[in-house]
Amino acid sequence: xxxxxxxxxxxxxxxxxxxxxxxxxxxxxxxxxxxxxxxxxxxxxxxxxxxxxxxxxxxxxxxxxxxxxxxxxxxxxxxxxxxxxxxxxxxxxxxxxxxxxxxxxxxxxxxxxxxxxxxxxxxxxxxxxxxxxxxxxxxxxxxxxxxxxxxxxxxxxxxxxxxxxxxxxxxxxxxxxxxxxxxxxxxxxxxxxxxxxxxxxxxxxxxxxxxxxx
Length: 214
Known about the structure:
By secondary structure, the protein is mainly beta. It has strands at about 5, 15, 50-55, 60-65, 70-80, 85-95, 105-115, 140, 155-160, 170-180, 185, 205-210.
C-alpha cells in the first residue's frame, strides 16, 4: 500500500494513504483553486444538532388575564454545551379564545431568560420592536363562534441567537394575553364539556429547543 507522508517540523506528520482494497476506478480528491480551506474531521460538530430538550403539556389550561401571563408548565430549559450555538425553537399551541369574533383575540409570545436573569421578549421568536407595540409570536382566535368548540392549533418555529456562556441555562416559556373577558383555553374545548364529539377532544401542546452548533 503506497502513501505520502507530510512531516511537521516537530517530527509527527499526516499521511495520505491508498485505500485498503483496489477501487473499481481511480478516485480524485480535488482541492479548491480559488481559496484556502480546512478539511473537517469526522467528529466535527459544525452545523450539527448537539442536543434536544422538550416539554409536552396535555392538560387543559385557561386564562382570562388582560396582561401577559405564563402558560403553566409550558417552558423548556436548555444548557448549551458549545460556544456560539444557535437555538432552534419549535412550538405547537392548541388553543385560542372562547369566541371566534375579531374582538376576542388572544396574543401568544415567547419569553427567554439566560443564566437566571429576567425574562425578556427580546428574542427571534417575537416580532420586531416598533414603538409601544407589543412583540408577540402570533395572534389567535377560536375555531368557531361557539363556547363548546375546540380552538385551533398553531405551530411556530424560529432560530434564536442568544448571547451566553457555555454552561448557562437558557429558559424559554410561553405567555398569553386575552383581549377581553372571553378568555383563552389550551388543549380542550372552551366550554369544557365531556362527550365523545370531535369538537370536545383533548389535544397536546409542546415546546422544543434544539442546540445547533455554529
